[in-house]
Amino acid sequence: MTTSTSRVPASPDPEEEELETEIASIRAEIQNLQKHKRFLTSSLLATDPIQKLLRKQPQPPTTTDPTDPLTTISPIVHSAGAHTSSNHHRIAFGATAFPFKDPSPTAGSATLLGVRIDVCARNGRFAKPYYIILQHEHNRAVSGSAKMLKVYRHTVPGFISIAKLESVYLPRPGVTRENGNGHRGSSSGEDEDAEPAKPWKKSGSSARKQDLRGFVRELRRELVAWHMRVDAVEFLREKLGLVGEGGGSLPFDVSPDRDTGIVSLAAVAVEARYVRVEWVDGRVGRFKLSNAGIVERAVVIGDEGRDKKVEDAMTGGGGRVETILDRLRVDVLSRSPGL
Amino acid sequence: MARPQTVRAPTAASLPNNLRVPSSTPSLTKSLGKLSRQALLDLALTWLDDRNIASFPPYLQTDGEDGPDDDQALPYPAGKTIEEVRQVYEDLQDRKGAKREVLERILEGDWRHGITLRQLAMADLRYMDDHPASLRWTALELSRIDTKRKNSKSPPPTDWSGSVPRMQAATFVQSLQREISPLVKAHYHLAHSATLPLTFLRIFVVDSPYQSPRRAAEIFTDSSRVIYVAFPDSCPYVYTSIAASTGPKSAPSTSSLATDTRTLQRLVRDSIPKALSRPQERFSLQATSLAAKNLPTLLALRGPGRSTASTGAFSIFADAAIEGSPLDPRPSNTVSPEEHIRASHSSPTEGKENTNGSVNKRRSSAIDTAPLSPDSKKRRLAIHSRFGTLGSSLAPAPLDRLDIRLLDKPGSSDGQYDDDDDSMSTLPAISLTFTGSDVIGGIRKLAELGIVDPERMPSWMTGEEGVSVATVRLGERLRTDT
Questions:
Q1: Does A28 share its domain with A115?
Q2: Using CB atoms, which residue from B144, B234, B306 is nearest to A186?
Q3: Where found (chain A) (predicted)?
Q4: What is the pLDDT of residues A196-236, one digit of tens each?
């Protein structure tokens, strides 16, 4: 690493030290500039006019001439063009597929199918892409039917149950019967009425087709919803002034928000499904966010039991989480009973 | 402050938070002495915090008035007000000094009337935060038991959340208490870790039915009676740990019970899923064949993050080390993995828990750019493709122990295998045990040195399975034994 300069052990000379730090800072700057330059060159190469210009260029006459600058740069330009178009796909569709070869010697020769999901966050940046690596299963002789896919590896956070999604969208004969039970249908407690039709349904489900599109669509929706929830909480925190300049939370105790009297607002866990709110007068509340960004349920408890008025204000008025602070303003709340 | 102990009736209640262990107990000095000076000061200031002062009142002059008047004999005069006591610790914080000084001040000065069980628990958890590798943890998976088989064609499309039980701390402890109180008496302490995305539950068990056991105070610091359960945030896993031999060897006096602690531990572990369960929503714990000393390792391999289901060769995906964000104009093969990992920070989880810690280490991984021979270059590429970012300094998830049982016949080549023989034949199964500070990292080093062939080694050597115990046949891990 160029930035880590070798420091002279216990050099008492202040001048020397000064020079050292100067060198280090210059090196860092050089690195930054180099990075910037690479950014600019690749952006330039990927621009439309240049790409078009090169496409127009007739290939055969130039290839013979090694000194022609166009021949030497054309692979770079091509790779830049390919990269740009794949980036466009990633931005536009959010889910792209790619082949992946397991390097393990025991893995067999079949390539794995990778799916990359890109989610755009609130700050205009993209989160780390999520990957699902699917494996073709062909160990059992299913009368030469279509290839069965199975999730092999993935990078989806733990609170989204890949097993549940898989059992619904990528059912495999045999598996649904045996161990799919642990996850299957566990998501619902409301379809008891389906029980009489069970035997019929069972035979139907084993013949169900795998639906990779549905799988990816549903998974992406869930991931996007999670990011939106996290962003919404972050947005509320910013509005309340609970977030410091650097993005981290402030180290000292924050004075309560003037309009709402809220001292703290934070997601309960990584999943950001529940948000905990604290007021300056000791009331504590919690609300649940739906995937669509609606406050589904809210509970506020103070010293005198539940505060129904605030709860109603949280869930009422369309229930959008972004406007929850406006609904919780003290003057709005105090006015509402008169209306 | 000793409570009258004339009436002792067995109860089913838990041990109270404010049960005081006499400060003169020698083992108390030891168990608090594990902590650093800074940690002790932090703890003392936490105890003196306005919110906690009611739970951990220090010994003040007013307390001594009705008692025997021996204050002059003690080296630390009792403070007059809480503010004064607080000032003492703030002063101690400002100047340098020995740990001893703080420890004595706590035990002989301000908490001379005893350290409560809750204070002990807080001290232990603080120690755990400072030393995440001090215990051996086992990862267990929580899974839902469904009594009814439902094969509905259209499950509600909104609920794909994993089987993470919604846990409310107080309720959970209460139902856990209900489960185990007939069997053991326990003290519970639940706290969120300051450094890791974990909630710790510290359970201290005694096998006496009495509220204030008449045993020696030593047992309260006996670390073999402490069980830790950690709940990582937002994922269906639970880590448990027996505090093995980290503390002082204070067990000999209770030799008859020494064997019992294992049973107590099992009892507690069995009751955790029951305590988490609710009507219509029952959970069970399943082994995941992973045990490691390091909590960050467990979090990486069985945690809420990205790397849980993609390790080894697939860790490049978990770390997003091969491709950048879609807004990056540079072709991905021209950017180094380090830069990729550093660039994509905006994931809500990773920014906090995973990357921050490791990025700093990543920088220190000096990639020597010395000219390479084609051979070693090829090897390096192979190593990269096999191990991904795992085992290098890029993704620190050190396993301290890896047990592998090989079921292959010695000498049999890969292609031919006859399953029928295996079950009954008396083949010697080969067991391999790797121990060290970082097993997978070590294998990677061996591969880098050319001792292990990176292209032909089986995938369990790359840490791809993310387990610490595995049975292997033909290079594939058998899942049935888990």
A1: no
A2: B144
A3: Chromosome, Centromere; Nucleus
A4: 333 444 444 445 678 888 889 889 988 999 899 999 998 88
Structural domains in chain B (count):
3
User: Is B405 found in the same domain as B256?
Assistant: no
- Mark whether A294 and A323 lie in a shared domain: yes
Looking at the structure, do residues A163 and A67 belong to the same domain, yes or no?
A: no
**Could you tell me how far CA B406 lies from the centroid of its own chain?**
29
Look-up of token digits 């016949």: B409
- Domain annotation covers residue B457: yes
Residue A324, domain member (yes or no): yes
- Residue A298 corresponds to which tokens in the numbers above? 């809210």
Print the domain residue range for B333: 306-477
A44 in any annotated domain: yes
Q: Which residues contact B23 (CB under 8 A, 6 or more apart)?
A: B107, B108, B111, B112, B113, B114, B115
> Which residues lie across from B106 on neighbouring strands?
none
- Residue B103: what residue type? L
**pLDDT for residue B166:** 67
A105:B317 CB<8 A:
no
User: To which residue do tokens 């890969």 refer?
Assistant: B414
Whether B349 sits inside 8 A of A157 (CB atoms) is yes
pLDDT per residue as tens digits for the range B361-400: 333 333 444 455 777 778 888 887 888 776 555 556 778 8
Report CB contact under 8 Å: A165, B314. Answer: no
User: In this complex, is the C-beta atom of A42 within 8 Å of any C-beta atom belonging to chain B?
Assistant: yes
Average per-residue pLDDT in chain A? 74
Contact list in B for residue A222 (CB cut-off 8 A) is: 160
Q: Which residue has the tokens 């020079």?
A: A19
Q: Which residues of B touch A218 (CB under 8 A)?
A: 157, 160
Say if pTM beats, i.e. exceeds, 0.90.
Answer: no
Assembly ipTM:
0.73
Do B106 and B138 lie in one domain? The reply is no
For residue A270, tell me if it sits in a domain: yes
Q: Tell me: do A78 and A108 sit in the same domain.
A: no
| Residues of B whose CB is below 8 A from A46 | 329
User: Are residues A112 and A69 located together in one domain of the fold?
Assistant: no
Of B152, B162, B307, the CB nearest to A188: B152
Q: What is the CA radius of gyration of chain B?
A: 27
* Cα nearest neighbour of A181 on chain B: B149
On whether any CB of chain A is under 8 Å from the CB of B366, the answer is: yes
Closest residue of chain B to A178, computed from CA coordinates:
B149
CA distance A164 to chain B (A): 7
Q: Give the B window 288-347 contacts with A, CB below 8 Å.
A: 303-310, 313-314, 317-318, 320, 323, 325-334, 344, 346-347
Tokens of A206: 């084993």
Contact B474 A106 (CB under 8 A): yes
B window 406-425, beta carbon within 8 A of A:
414
**3-class secondary structure per residue, chain A:** CCCCCCCCCCCCCHHHHHHHHHHHHHHHHHHHHHHHHHHHHHHHHHCHHHHHHHHHCCHHHHHCCCCCHHHHHHHHHHHHHHHHHHHHHHHHHCEEEEEECCCCCCCCCCCEEEEEECCECCCCCECCCEEEEEEEECCCCCCCCCCEEEEEEECCCCCECHHHHHHHHCCCCCCCCCCHHHCCCCCCCCCHHHHHHHHHHHHHHHCCCCCHHHHHHHHHHHHHHHHHHHHHHHHHHHHHCCECCCCCECCCCCCCCCCCCEEEEEECCCCCCEEEEEECCCCEEEEEECCCCEEEEEEEEECCEECHHHHHHHHCCCCECCCHHHHCCHHHHHHHHHC
B314/A153 Cβ within 8 A: yes
- Number of domains into which chain A is organized: 3
- For residue B175, give the CATH number of its domain: 3.30.310
In 3D space, the residue among B125, B98, B110 whose CA is nearest the CA of residue B37 turns out to be B98
Task: State the nearest Cα–Cα gap between A21 and chain B, in angstroms.
Answer: 18
